[in-house]
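Table S2 (continued). Query chain:
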Amino acid sequence: MPYLSWLQTNLPQEPLVYVADTANFPYGEKTPAQVRSAVTNLGQALVDRYDPKVLLVACNTASVLALDALRASLTIPVVGVVPAVKTAASLGTGTLAVLATPRTVENDYWENLVREFAPERRVRGYAAPELVTLVEEGAQEEIRQALLAGWARRFREDGVDAVVLGCTHYLHLAEDLRRHLGPGVALVDSRDGVGRRVARILEDQGLLAASRDCTDQFLFTAREEWDQETMAILEARYRPWARRFGLTYAGPWVLTGAVS
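Corresponding output:
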């Protein structure tokens, strides 16, 4: 949603479709092959249904594991998001933390970014799948703050002075996490760079819209075998999200081929 907000603010004339791939959630606990299969299948389904100008993969795990496969299979521009190591490299002199899902931390993609953009920094990856669950499912405020305070304490104990948010879910926790970290620790994400990349592609290809004639849409993918109770729970979760960002609620979208 933070990437969506950037696009709505900076490219207000562009009609947007936001899809939450709930049928395959969470990517961070799947094998690389499963993630690639899920993301490429969804990408092709989106092209077939909406004929978009650009596809933005607003997920670090999906970008790290499936971006090349997506670009090879689709004919439209595909923009991914990756940990903002380059931006964070010049912030501080202590440990640089990359906070991400297990699959992103295990993949060598972010380590390649470190070698290229932060060779002199001490960098460490931290897997935090529980923070993804916190954003998706919510929690009592006391539990939420205790969890974030625990991560802030761990970072301070490890001498961290810059944290890269390597999962788009974590952007929803940024303000609270920043407060727990205090002014001595920088918090970095990639939303501005990614947004500007999308805008540049549209401009370079002459695809910028002059005006819009429809509202932005939100939908989530679903599995054929889910019962009515499961669907009702998900709809109750996602309808407020859609309203919060001014989106027309258009889900659920039942897709075949969801990854087990």
